[in-house]
Amino acid sequence: MQYPPWTSVSKAAKLLKAGEVVAIPTETVYGLAGNAFDPQALAKIFAAKERPTFDPLIVHICDISQLADIAKDIPEAAYKLARTYWPGPMTMILPKKDCIPDLCTSGLPSVAVRFPSHPVARQIIQEAGVPLAAPSANLFKHVSPTTAEHVASQLADRIAGIVDGGPCSVGVESSIISLVGEPTVLRPGAITPEMFADILGDVKVKESTSKPGQAMQAPGQCDTHYRPQVPLYFGKVPEGYVLPKKTARIAFGTQEGPIPATVNLSKTGDLTEATAKIYAFMHDLDTPDYELILVDPIPNTGVGMALNDRLKRASIKQLPV
């Protein structure tokens, strides 16, 4: 096989029908897709990512009507959210039907479902003819990919194909809301808690913490996740701390920093622009040229909550001495 294994939409659909796994573009990040009904395809996803099986997968559909094929006891709240925010960067947790293998849900009685807005993703799902389980197309706990090249650098020799759909427009993983019991936001994203509340009224927001080895309520709940190999520190540098000479700084807005900005997430302080750029910058700076990556503080409002969530998981807790 030639590496990277670039492939077309139609070839990707054929590979997926044959039980293979393929990286596909979505508006959030690139996903590593496999037939959600096929335990062997799901096992290939976990193996390629080196992902523990206690971390459940998100099932992707290409029409709201398909929700009833994989979930049961669907509340009206789910259809209200679907009509408002699908297709788009929102995942809902719902009671699962028996057709979804336990491997997909880490043995939980619930399933995570999303209807992506990226036209290439939707076309692939439609042509494959089955819902696709698709976590981010990267090695477990590494930085999520927002371009096909990011996927190739980590997984090229582990998977059957990569479909290049251009850079991801949202740039961080989907918002996750559980509708099993009280509506609860489990992972922040581009659909903010305020946006959920606009449709459902009050919603809870869970501070996500993982219990190692135990099934998680939803994907992306590990306390350490999305990490570059170069140590990343998020927040204000303590006064008097001497930074390594090879330090990069990811700036935000017009904040003053301890060193000049290497790159800027958004010179105008636009949180949406910053969210779309964060993983790309983390990939770009994750090289032997640097010993440390600093990231400026980010306002914890709106989509900034998603940025803060990912950066906290990506960061070291203390600067090296």
Provide tags for this entry.
321 residues, alpha/beta, ten-stranded mixed β-sheet, four-stranded parallel β-sheet, 10 helices, globular
Largest sheet: 10 strands, mixed
Shape: globular
**Beta-strand residue percentage:** 15-25%
The helix content is 25-40%
Average predicted confidence as pLDDT: 93
Strand order of the largest sheet: 7-1-2-6-3-5-4-8-9-10
Terminal residue distance: 46 Å
Radius of gyration: 19 Å
Oligomer: single chain
Q: How would you classify the helix and strand content by structural class?
A: alpha/beta
Q: What's the tally of helices?
A: 10
Description of the molecule:
The protein is an alpha/beta fold. It is globular and about 60 Å long. It is 28% helix and 16% strand.
